[in-house]
Amino acid sequence: MHSPEFNAAHYAARYQEARRAGDHQLISDAAGDCVRSYEAMGDEEKTCTFLHIQGSSQLLSSDYSAALLTAQMLIARDYVRKDPVLKAKTEILMAASLRNLGQHEAAIAHARQALGTLGPVAGASRIRAEAYQGLIASLVEAGSIAEAWELRDQLSESLAGTPDPEFSGHGYWTLGNLAFAHGQLDAGLEYHERAASSLKLVNNIHLWARFNKSSADVQLQAGIAKNQTQDCIDRAELAYAIVGGTPVDLAGLSLTKARWLIATDQLEQACRMLQDHVLGNNEADIQDTSLALELLAQVRCRQKT
Asked: I need a surface site. Which of 21, 70, 162, 205 has the fewest CB within 10 A?
């Protein structure tokens, strides 16, 4: 029978392997083993650290009920209540879990609690930005877009203090989506330009593809069909050509391009693309196929007029 110290070192090594693999379920399982090992050793700091890692991985694995339960276990621990940064991170985890479970008012309350906890803490720009993003996302999903928009400057200021380009890029991406939802189209384009400036520094081509497709989608939804919109589509196509995309990724991008062609009155080309999508994408998402049929009907209607 191995000692608790041996078990802790063994499971910590497994956790590092899971991180390198990038599999959130494996990370969650390995973190859970670390929690049990460090708890057996009486190491409260590492127990709480790995509990938070486990909850975050459960969230990224879309196991929102498990993530909420882990956050509730964390917030009940004395060590967490005495550490304002870890308490705020736990409140953020709880807010994200609740938001994804559709409990928006509770999510808003926990995101606000995270910001309140961070109030007197210096040098916590990244965590403060995470809290603002969580609060904004919860407000938007609760239908309080105007209230969320009022928080834009606070989030932007917090992002300016974070040196991580991937994190700041995600933040400006969020702000751009918020601006488009609020009808602030110029601000939306500006925020997405700032997001692009940050994300192009990150060595993650899949992320670059997703961002550019998403940006093109919200622009088209807002009635924008500029060269900037086409640039986003071109960048997403190039990125997927380099790294490859899943059938769902590529089918979704083809719909984005079809919407661009419709918006720029290239109806024949849009019609051909949509017909190919409907007939040739057996692995496409059902919602994407329904959208393709709806767009095809619109194109044919416009062609008759």
From this structure: 21
- Helix 205-221 and helix 185-199: axis angle, to 10°? 170
- Are 68 and 97 within 8 A, CB to CB? yes
DSSP string for 245-273: --HHHHHHHHHHHHHHHHHTT-HHHHHHH
d(CA 83, CA 26) in angstroms, rounded, equals: 28
Mean pLDDT, to the nearest integer, of 64-87? Answer: 96
Write the single-letter amino acid at 239: A
Residue with tokens 């290239």: 266
Helix segments in 61-204, DSSP class H: 64-75, 78-82, 84-100, 104-118, 125-141, 145-149, 152-160, 165-181, 185-199
Q: How does residue 245 score in pLDDT terms, banded at 50, 70 and 90?
A: confident
pLDDT surpassing 60 at residue 25: yes
Q: CA dihedral defined by 143, 146, 152, 155, rounded to 10 degrees?
A: -40
Among 204, 285, 274, smallest CA distance to 246 is for 285
Task: Pull the structure tokens for residue 215.
Answer: 């940006």
Is the Cβ–Cβ distance between 208 and 198 less than 8 Å?
A: no
| pLDDT band, very low/low/confident/very high, at 283 (cuts 50, 70, 90) | low
**Distance between terminal CA atoms of the chain?**
80
As a whole number of angstroms, the distance between CA 75 and CA 73 comes to 6
Note the pTM of the prediction, 2 decimals.
0.79
5 or 84, which is more confident? 84
Q: Are 157 and 128 in contact (CB under 8 A)?
A: no
Tokens 């550019």, residue located? 212
CA 125, distance to chain mean position in Å, is: 19
Helix (H, G, I), strand (E, B) or coil at 183: coil
Upper half-sphere CA count for residue 34 (Cβ side, 13 Å): 26
- Token pair for 129: 């930005």
